[in-house]
Input
Amino acid sequence: MNRKSMNMDSEAVAASQTAQVLGPAGSLGDILERVVIIPTTTSPGSVTIINGTGGTSTVIFNGGATSLTELKPFVVELGALCIAAGGWQITTGANVACFCVGRFR
Output
């Protein structure tokens, strides 16, 4: 294990979750390093990250009909800093779960 990956937090997010806060409370300054997207069908829903409570939302995976050709997890590298109170939040559509890695306070 390299030094960069030490002291990281992780959190699983089930399918069909709305604005799940990452970490125990979510805080300004939290870091979202990567999101492992885990589809259960080749037509899964989308995955959206939200920067803080009421903050900017960004779709990191659109999903949709036949959006994938195979069922295997894939990684979206972010290395993003939360610049709003409330920490990182993630919304998952139907048939898609995530595993998030970063520093969540």
In short: The chain has a mean pLDDT of 93. The chain has one domain: 3-103.
